[in-house]
Amino acid sequence: MGWMDPVRTWDEDGMGCKSVQQERPPLSPSASHSVLTLRAPGTRAVVGDMVELRCEAQSGSFPIRYRFYLEDVILGSSSAPSGRGVSFNLSLTAEHSGNYSCEADNGLGAQCSEAVTLSVTGGTCLCVLEDMGWSCQASFLLDDSVVGKLVFSSWALLCTGHNRPHPNPGLMLPRERG
Questions:
Q1: What pLDDT digit, counting tens, does each position of 92-105 carry?
Q2: pLDDT band for position 109 (cuts 50, 70, 90)
Q3: Is residue 21 part of a domain?
Q4: Residues 57 and 130 placed together within one structural domain of the fold
Q5: Source organism's superkingdom (predicted)?
Q6: Mean pLDDT to the nearest integer, 53-64
Q7: What is the number of domains present in the chain?
Q8: Model's pTM, two decimal places?
Q9: Domain for residue 14, yes or no?
Q10: Same domain for 161 and 107?
């Protein structure tokens, strides 16, 4: 049974009032403080990884609408008709570094999570080299996790020209001058 609220009505001759109890449904509390967790496949978040963002409200009435944010920009939203949380998957690019948060709102009040910082490392660089009729495309996976240095963690080189592969594509790479 819900709460009983007094309702005042005037008696028939309009001279006094009487109190009548009227039942109303109980209000459920707003969604509680939400918790954001990030799950990545490895110990570091790298460009191309799929990351799961999960937002959970510990209590509150349903349905609960969840919103996911990167800084102050909404990435997506989802409703949970029952259960305490939802997930949002994200394929990482270099632009996905930043502070993530989520919000749980059941219509009676929204609660935000603490911010979680994600640093995405890596990226790709495509370079095209031309030399005496040969065209080379070099693709590098960059690792910027070493402060102040650019590290090539892997690379691939494809050279074509004169309707055949270059006999020694390594000769096409620019040499470091020191």
A1: 988 999 999 999 99
A2: confident
A3: no
A4: no
A5: Eukaryota
A6: 91
A7: 2
A8: 0.58
A9: no
A10: no
The candidate with the shortest Cα–Cα distance to 160, out of 133, 123, 121, is 133
CB 68 within 8 A of CB 83: no
* Higher-scoring residue by pLDDT: 68, 130: 68
Structure tokens at 146: 């070493």
Assign 155 a pLDDT band (cuts: 50, 70, 90).
low
Give the position of tokens 């102050």. Answer: 72
What is the span of the domain harbouring residue 130? 123-172
Contacts of 35 (CB under 8 A, 6+ apart): 55, 56, 58, 113, 114
In a domain, 6, yes or no: no
DSSP assignment string, the chain: --EEEEEEEE-TTSS-EEEEEEEEPPPPPPP--EEEEEE-SSSSEETT-EEEEEEEESS-PSPEEEEEEETTEEEEEEEESSSSEEEEEEE--GGG-EEEEEEEE-SS-EEEPPPEEE-EE-EEEEEEEEETTEEEEEEEEEE--STT--EEEEEEEEEEETTEE-S-GGGGSPPP--
